[in-house]
Amino acid sequence: MNGRVGCAIVSLLNNIEQHHILRRLSDEATVFMAALKAIETAIKYATSNLFSYAKIITNSRSVLQAVHNPNNDYPPIRQIKSLLTSSATKFDLIWTRAHVGVVGNEMADSYAKKQLPKMTSK
Predict the structure, then answer these.
(1) Please, is 81 exposed, middle or buried when counting C-beta atoms within 10 Å of its C-beta (0-12, 13-18, 19+)?
(2) pLDDT tens profile 48-107
(3) What is the C-alpha to C-alpha distance for residues 59 and 99, in angstroms, rounded to an integer?
(4) What DSSP letter does each residue of the chain carry, written as one string?
């Protein structure tokens, strides 16, 4: 969005928002990197809040394919795999098409679009 890259996650319980987190990435970051950061943020959020189970829904098929590829040794992918295996939380990573009415996915997209222009990168 205007050269800015970021991501958002939304935690839902019975389709009601419980919490959301926004992350601004450097302007050089790719959409792939933003999707990785969103998944990493969701894993850390669920783990730190002691969720027994979390469903992470993303519209980035390429990120899910990379995470599920046992030969992918890209450091951010390794980090996500490590977080998944070391967490007591059970995770399901699920792909959805963008903009098809998946509540959490639409909310995260909306947060990112509204807030990203106001945020600065770290």
Answers:
(1) middle
(2) 999 999 999 999 999 999 999 999 999 999 999 999 999 999 999 999 998 788 988 889
(3) 9
(4) -TT-EEEEEEEEETTEEEEEEEEEE-TT--HHHHHHHHHHHHHHHHHHTT-SEEEEEES-HHHHHHHH-TT---HHHHHHHHHHHH-SSEEEEEE--TTS--HHHHHHHHHHHHHGGG----
Residues 6+ positions from 93 with CB-CB distance below 8 Å: 39, 56, 58, 64, 67, 68
pLDDT tens by residue, 88-104: 999 999 999 987 889 88
pTM of the model: 0.89
Query: What value does the CA radius of gyration of the chain take, rounded to a whole number of Å?
Result: 14
Roughly what angle, to the nearest 10 degrees, separates helices 61-68 and 75-86?
Answer: 70
- Residue 7 token pair: 């991501």
* Cα 64 to Cα 95: distance, rounded to the nearest angstrom: 7
